[in-house]
Amino acid sequence: MENLEIAVLRNAFLRPGMVGLDGSFREYVAFIVGFDLGLQQDLIGGFSEWIANRSGAGGWSLVWPVLVLREAGLESWNKNGWHALSREDDIRAVATLIVLLQEFLDADLGRR
Length: 112
Known about the structure:
It is a single chain. By secondary structure, this protein is mainly alpha-helical. The chain contains 6 helices and no strands. The protein has helices spanning 4-14, 25-38, 47-55, 64-71, 77-80, 87-111. Helix 4 (64-71) packs across helix 6.
């Protein structure tokens, strides 16, 4: 049985409109941060460190959205900010976020 928090995240990715999202990377970032804070839990605590360690490229002081973009191979966001990604880059960033978050949560739940 899947825990409720993970089920909510999974449904947000499958049906973004049901939680008021447009499916963009920036809205997923806001949703995940707000969801985590609203639960008063640490659902994604350690996510930044996990990504930095996984990649082996460092970045310990970077926030997880920036690390996700780096994992997606996106560097052009630096010019306009990650809030203004092209449609193609946005799709790529969301796909990378889904994969990384699922891997992190699977690994994290295995430790609990």
